[in-house]
Amino acid sequence: MEEKSAQIAEYRKEISGILSELEVQFEQLGKVLTSFSSPKFIEAKEMQTRIKALEEDVDTQDMKISEIQQAQEKSHNAREEIASIEQRLSAIDIEKNSLYSRIGVIAYEEYSAGSLGEEFSLLFTSVTHQNAELTRLQKALKENELRFVAAPFFEKMSLRLKRNKLKAEIQKLDSAREDLFRKAGKQICSSDYIKQVKSRNAVIIYEDYKRLGIESTRLYEQMEARKDERQRNEELLMRAGVTGSIETRIEELRKNRELYYKNLQVLYIDLAHFMLDHPEELAKVEELPQAETNLKHIHKLERKQKELEQKITQLEARLRIAELESVIKNDQDRVEHLNGQIALLSKQIQEIKDKVTQNRKQIVNLKRIAGSETD
């Protein structure tokens, strides 16, 4: 019995798989029949109309999800490209500042040597003043160091403090001087002054400057294009209903899509069953190549299902027979047991009856004796 029960369970599991596959086949058949003309049946026409409306709803949800995902990806890529461009532009600014400083130093050297005109004097006035101040501080530092060597112990502390102050001022002037050279070099590069600088190194540096300028222009244009693209996609996300998390909006659309599609699946299956339940339409349906394949598969699955159900019926009948035979055997055993009890009780009854008969005879005899004594 256990073996038969296990076999039945296996058959039912197989039938469950067949039923699932049949649903798939009926659904696919329904899709094919959606565009199948059947003017004879109003019910079929109504189902087809509802199916097309739901298909549009599903397509709309798919389109919105795709648009959001694409806009999200494009916006993300645009942000990354903008960040990359900004990093490169920052690096170019650093390179340019280095070039400005080098041009400024070269031009100042030529100006100091008298190779450049007086128009450069305004550019380097601050540098000249700083150079004079720097020379003064360096001279003061040298004098301080010389005095420190020969100074008595009690003077060394004040000289050391002054020396540290002088070094700090010199360092500050050096930094400011570099900034002045950078500003001067920037003005030279962005004007016709660069044409008067004769150094070959200046020519090479200026070529690098122009190259960086061209690259900067290209990058700024590219960055503006990416910013426009990012803005367009962010506006698209807003129009698609994204007000917070993109993932939340996509999940909402997917749930709507799932609801529409489940209703659509039911209608596909209902339409397929409806058409197959009308023999006059079946011949027309079978003429459709796609439908023919589905129908063959459906018939094959239904035959297999019927075979398995028949096997289950046979196994269940055999199980029932075995159960009934077991019940019958138990009942027969009970009957035999009861028959034995009946025989025993019958014997006991007879013995009691015999005893009653004997007791009655004794009463009769005793009554005779009792009567004669009375007399």
Describe the structure.
- The longest helix is centred in the last third of the chain and has 86 residues, at 289-374.
- The protein is elongated.
- With 375 residues, it is mostly helical.
- The model has no long low-confidence stretch (mean pLDDT 86).
- Helix 2 packs antiparallel against helix 5.
- It starts with a helix and ends with a helix.
- The chain has eight helices and no strands.
Relative helix content: over 70%
**Whole-number mean pLDDT:** 86
Radius of gyration: 55 Å
What's the count of strands? 0
Secondary structure class reads: mainly alpha
The general outline is elongated
Measured distance between first and last alpha carbons: 84 Å
Strand content range: under 5%
User: SSE string, helix = H, strand = E?
Assistant: HHHHHHHH
With helices defined by DSSP (H or I, 4 residues minimum), what is the helix count?
Answer: 8
Concise synopsis of the structure shown:
The chain has 375 residues and is mainly α. It has helices spanning 2-33, 42-112, 121-150, 153-189, 200-239, 246-276, 279-286, 289-374.
SSE blueprint and pairings:
Elements: H1 2-33, H2 42-112, H3 121-150, H4 153-189, H5 200-239, H6 246-276, H7 279-286, H8 289-374
Helix pairs in contact: 1-6, 1-8, 2-4, 2-5, 2-6, 3-4
